[in-house]
Amino acid sequence: MNKKNKKLDPPKKAFLFSKSNYLIMAIGIVFIALGFILMAGGGSDDPNVFNEEIYNFRRIRLAPTLVLIGFAIEVFAILYKEK
């Protein structure tokens, strides 16, 4: 066979991650977004009045924990490989 007669197939383009990786990444993004939404607010409309609600459990403990869990899920999604 001549080299000129051979048709070279273009290389197949494959995704870097599988469908399950993208699904796990989406779950991680939801956790991160939920954490930032829970952190929002708590300020006072009047700058001369201090609002104690800024130091409640939701903003100090729950929201940062959800953000960190979301980042851990993202790292897991990147490293996860299907069998």
List the helices and strands and how they pair.
Blueprint: H1 19-39, H2 57-79
Low-confidence stretches: none
Which bin fits the share of residues in helices? 40-55%
The pLDDT mean sits at 88
Beta fraction of the residues? under 5%
Describe the global form: elongated
Q: What structural category arises from helix and sheet content? A: mainly alpha
How far from one another are the termini?
39 Å
DSSP, total strands: 0
Put simply, the count of helices is 2
Radius of gyration: 24 Å
Domains, number: 1
For the biggest sheet, the summary is: none
What's the SSE pattern? HH
Question: Could you characterize the architecture of this molecule?
Answer:
- The protein has 83 residues and is mainly α.
- The chain has one domain (19-79).
- It has 2 helices and no strands.
- It has helices at 19-39, 57-79.
- 2% of the residues are buried.
Features:
single chain; elongated; 83 residues; mainly alpha
